[in-house]
């Protein structure tokens, strides 16, 4: 295995209570092989740094035009020509109003561990730890493996939040090193999965089966998107999870309500959000879907 001591992240977040047990520090890796149409972190998708352009913050000072070595900023409306921009970040550094921001930062294992250990007492008292998500942690398997290993050596509980896509030989070493796996299952039908995420779900389902066979604590998570995967898909997912539960009692399933908090980010990145008119769901609306899972005998997490 290659040793990889640097990786690229787009964010860290302390005091999270939603992605694993207790109070946790979240690490968001940059890069994802999927393009889910509901993705709320579009800045996570591309593996390289890029500029977020929050036009509503712009005060029109023109500094970004002056510093850009690629002449990529339009001097009339300060819009970036992304074909010319190489994400050097100079405009972000000079933008007092924080209209232009660079997303994507190279970090070392040691830097992330230093962030994590600061809250070790909080993890201990709450049953928490660190969760590596993204983006997709499996796009940087060697780095994530090294980080998880470094945390384990300091007795910090580790979890990864993953779509499970990829070759098992890469996936397995990261899964083996994590204490808990939060495994997204987006759609059981292969054609729909391809249509809504851009990739087949074959390797995902195979990896889910192999992960469950390892006996590890796995929480499957279904982002429920109205009109996309909320019908028969919930029953199919429940049947799949129920089957895995028979070999591993630590397998559970959780439903996540659709939200559109990431909608504006698409504009800031110069991309289109395809679910523009879809209303967000309330958690209470998930009740009927949880009932389907319970009737199938699934261990559910609310
Ligand atoms: S530096 Fe920032 S505030 Fe000034 S014109 Fe550029 S984007 Fe707008
Ligand atoms: S990131 Fe660099 S190349 Fe891109 S617009 Fe800003 S200054 Fe120009």
UniProtKB/TrEMBL annotation:
Keywords: 4Fe-4S, Iron, Iron-sulfur, Metal-binding, Oxidoreductase, S-adenosyl-L-methionine. It catalyses: glycyl-[protein] + reduced [flavodoxin] + S-adenosyl-L-methionine = glycin-2-yl radical-[protein] + semiquinone [flavodoxin] + 5'-deoxyadenosine + L-methionine + H(+). Residues 47-78, 79-105 form the 4Fe-4S ferredoxin-type domain. SUPFAM superfamilies: 4Fe-4S ferredoxins, Radical SAM enzymes. InterPro entries: 4Fe4S_Fe-S-bd (IPR017896), 4Fe4S_Fe_S_CS (IPR017900), Aldolase_TIM (IPR013785), BssD/PflA/YjjW (IPR040074), Organic_radical-activating (IPR034457), Organic_radical_activase (IPR012839), Radical_activat_CS (IPR001989), rSAM (IPR007197). Signal peptide: none annotated. It comes from the Bacteria. It holds the Pfam family Radical_SAM. Residues 18-299 form the Radical SAM core domain. Its cofactor is [4Fe-4S] cluster. GO terms for molecular function: 4 iron, 4 sulfur cluster binding; metal ion binding; oxidoreductase activity. Belongs to the organic radical-activating enzymes family. This is Glycyl-radical enzyme activating protein.
């Amino acid at each position: 295995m290659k040793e990889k001591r640097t990786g690229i992240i787009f964010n860290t977040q302390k005091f999270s209570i939603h992605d694993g047990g207790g109070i946790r520090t979240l690490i968001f890796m940059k890069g994802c092989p999927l393009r889910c149409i509901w993705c709320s972190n579009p800045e996570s998708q591309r593996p390289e740094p890029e500029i977020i352009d929050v036009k509503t913050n712009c005060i029109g000072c023109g500094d970004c035009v002056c510093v850009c070595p690629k002449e990529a900023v339009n001097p009339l409306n300060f819009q970036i020509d992304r074909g010319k921009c190489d994400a050097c970040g100079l405009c972000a550094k000079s933008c007092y109003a924080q209209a232009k921001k660079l997303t994507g930062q190279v970090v070392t294992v040691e830097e992330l561990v230093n962030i994590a250990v600061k809250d070790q007492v909080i993890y201990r008292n709450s049953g928490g730890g660190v969760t590596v998500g993204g983006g997709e942690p499996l796009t940087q398997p060697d780095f994530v493996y090294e980080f998880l290993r470094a945390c384990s050596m300091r007795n910090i509980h580790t979890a990864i939040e993953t779509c499970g896509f990829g070759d098992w030989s890469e996936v397995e070493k990261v899964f083996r090193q994590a204490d808990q796996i939060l495994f997204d299952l987006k759609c059981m039908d292969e054609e729909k999965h391809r249509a809504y995420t851009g990739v087949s779900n074959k390797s995902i389902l195979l990896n889910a089966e192999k992960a469950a066979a390892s006996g590890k604590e796995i929480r499957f998570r279904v982002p429920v998107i109205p009109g996309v995967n909320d019908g028969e898909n919930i029953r199919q997912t429940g049947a799949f999870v129920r089957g895995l539960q028979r070999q591993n009692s630590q397998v559970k399933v959780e439903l996540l309500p659709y939200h559109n908090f990431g909608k504006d980010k698409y504009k800031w990145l110069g991309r289109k959000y395809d679910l523009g008119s879809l209303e967000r769901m309330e958690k209470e609306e998930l009740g009927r879907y949880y009932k389907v899972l319970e009737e199938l005998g699934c261990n559910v997490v609310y």
